[in-house]
Amino acid sequence: MAVSATLAVNEAVERARRAGRAVLPLGFGEAGLPVHAALRERLAGAAGANSYGPVAGLPELRAAAAGYWQRRSLPTSAEQVVAGPGSKPLLYGLLAALEGDVALPRPSWVSYAAQATMLHHQARFVDTTPGQGGVPDPFALAALADQARAAGRPLRSVVLTLPDNPTGTLAGRDRVAGVCAVAREHDLVIISDEIYRDLVHDPATPYVSPAELAPERTVITTGLSKNLALGGWRLGVTRLPDSELGEQLGQHLLDIASEIWSSPPHPVQSVAAWAFTEPEVLRDHLAASRQLHGTVARAVAEVFAGVGAEVAAPAGGFYLYPDLEAHRERLARRWGITDGAGLARVLLEELDVATLPGSAFGDHAGALRLRVATSLLYGPDDLRRQTALMDDDPLGLPWVRDGLGQLRGALERLLD
Ligand SMILES: Cc1ncc(COP(=O)(O)O)c(C=O)c1O
Predict the structure, then answer these.
(1) Which of 62, 310, 337, 416 pairs as cysteine with 323 (C-beta 3.0–4.6 A)?
(2) Each residue of 35-83: pLDDT tens digit?
(3) Which CATH number fits domain 5-30+281-414: 3.90.1150.10, 2.170.120.20, 3.20.20.300, 3.30.565.10?
(4) How far is the CA of 5 from the centre of ligand 1 (A)?
């Protein structure tokens, strides 16, 4: 196992910075916003809570998370909720409990395939289409499921990401419904990673969770790392289906959790129990965050489109997935670039822009696609990030403008 590509790029940026280079950090997918003051205060108040507590999480947290889903038209009881130290270990526990090969969208978040491999399950990639990231093409998924069954190694699950990292897009109802139908036909468990759900930029965008369409077989994961920028606090939750499958899976997940993390951090759980009730102060904070993420992601998309890259309009989160295929010949001639890794390397080493190649997300190695995280453009410290969050015109702030200018200049030199 190698260190996760997203964390590795962060370290590469740090090294370049120590060498005195001003690298534009578009590689690491962190929300890039400060912790809301009300959350800080509550965490300080909860610091004395030092008992482990129940493996599944505090009852008040499980009840609050159930309420969160109920407000999203998903009837949920507290018993269906398991909390963990981030959604990443919960995903690992679920994949472990499911014991079988897993279908993944191509491209998809780095850790799904890595976790499957660690568990000796095969990760089987299925193509997505531009603008519908995070959800495999249902026809291709059905073909793979048939083929896997015929080969005596049937698929057990499929992971969806709504909205998606790395593409920043949100698949629509037809796509989700298509996958639900295939999952029913082939008895696949759907793991729906909805960690960016609250960061759909336009709240009027219709959102369809597979848990609405295939409730008996859909497990949802989410957390506070992205919507409230609390990645380092490590708190995630999963919603198990209200079915026999859900009960079995829940028991197996708790067995695994009890032997690995015992319980999520107690003080963080206390704060999360409050956060999942979605008090007004946090709703306002989230609305501002959503708006900033959308504004900056669209501005970066325009910079890429301006140099002739294909890039789907961002719909949620803080990512873009530009494709420089149109410049293949020029990139090969000028820089010797023939694949995504080469493209990301030249951008970092020659042009001081850190991104990740699509191949880190399971994409075809030869594709000239990049995952671009836009959130570290808000600034290098809490003061500037908070200013960007509060400002009506974040694109006019000098450091945001400079970052966009640095990117434009680097891309122009790349395509000189
Ligand atoms: C799609 C996706 N799922 C899950 C996670 C991990 O979240 P957590 O901090 O809850 O472990 C990330 C973080 O980068 C992500 O992008």
Answers:
(1) 310
(2) 999 999 999 999 999 999 999 999 999 999 999 999 999 999 999 999 9
(3) 3.90.1150.10
(4) 13
Kindly report the average pLDDT of the chain as a whole number: 96
Which of 164, 200, 226, 320 is the pocket-test mutation for ligand 1 (most atoms within 8 Å of CB)?
Answer: 226
Q: What are phi and psi of 192, to 5 degrees?
A: -105, 110
Which residues form ligand 1's pocket by a CB distance below 6 Å? 29, 86-88, 109, 161, 165, 193, 195, 223, 225, 231, 236
Amino acid at 363: D
- 335 to each of 213, 262, 308, 346, how far by Cα in Å? 48, 51, 18, 8
CA of 167 to the centre of ligand 1 (A): 14
Instruction: Categorize the per-residue pLDDT at 32 as very low, low, confident or very high, splitting at 50, 70 and 90.
Output: confident
Long-range contacts, 289-293 (Cβ 8 Å, 24+): 289/31, 289/33, 289/199, 289/227, 289/229, 289/389, 290/198, 290/199, 290/200, 290/201, 290/203, 291/201, 292/33, 292/378, 292/388, 292/389, 292/394, 293/199, 293/201, 293/317, 293/318, 293/374, 293/375
Q: Say whether pLDDT at 393 is over 90.
A: yes
Element (H, E) at 225: none
Q: What is d(CA 211, CA 194) in angstroms, rounded to the nearest whole number?
A: 11
Residue 138 CA to its chain's centroid (Å): 21
Does residue 145 have a pLDDT over 80? yes
Query: Does residue 223 register a pLDDT over 60?
Result: yes
**pLDDT reported for residue 5:** 63
Q: How far is the CA of 88 from the centre of ligand 1 (A)?
A: 6
Alpha-carbon distance of 115 to 120, in angstroms, equals 9
Phi-psi region of 362 (alpha: psi -120 to 50; beta: other; left: phi over 0): left
Same fold, 5-30+281-414 and 51-277: no
Q: What is the CATH number of domain 51-277?
A: 3.40.640.10
Q: Is the pLDDT of residue 3 over 70?
A: no
pLDDT at 57 (0 to 100) = 98
Distance of alpha carbon 225 from alpha carbon 394, whole angstroms: 22
Give the atom of ligand 1 at the shortest distance from the alpha carbon of 165: 1
For the chain, the structural domain boundaries read 5-30+281-414, 51-277
